[in-house]
Amino acid sequence: MYFADECSGVHYDRHGKRTAELVRDAMKYYADTDLE
Fold first, then answer.
1. What are the boundaries of each domain within the chain?
2. For the residues of the chain, what is the DSSP string, one character each?
3. Averaged pLDDT score across all residues of the chain
4. Which InterPro entries does the entry link to (predicted)?
5. Nearest to 23, CA basis, from 3, 1, 4, 6
6. Does 2 have pLDDT greater than 70?
């Protein structure tokens, strides 16, 4: 939900195109594999 907000995406994407998606996917992967 955080990354669906355009304002939040702009914050991350200023570091490179699609950075917000990369961070979102990394957080999901971490949650799915390392959290119980």
1. 1-35
2. -TTTSHHHHHHHHTTSTTHHHHHHHHHHHHHHHH--
3. 85
4. TipA-like_antibiotic-bd
5. 3
6. no
Tokens of 29: 């992967």
Phi-psi domain of 3 (left: phi exceeds 0; alpha: psi -120 through 50; beta: other): alpha
Residues 6+ apart with CB under 8 A from 7: none
- How would residue 22 be classed by pLDDT, with cut points 50, 70 and 90? very high
Return the closest-CA partner of residue 21 out of 32, 13, 29, 30: 13
Alpha-carbon gap, residue 13 to 9, rounded angstroms: 6
How far is Cα 22 from Cα 35, in angstroms, rounded to an integer?
Answer: 19
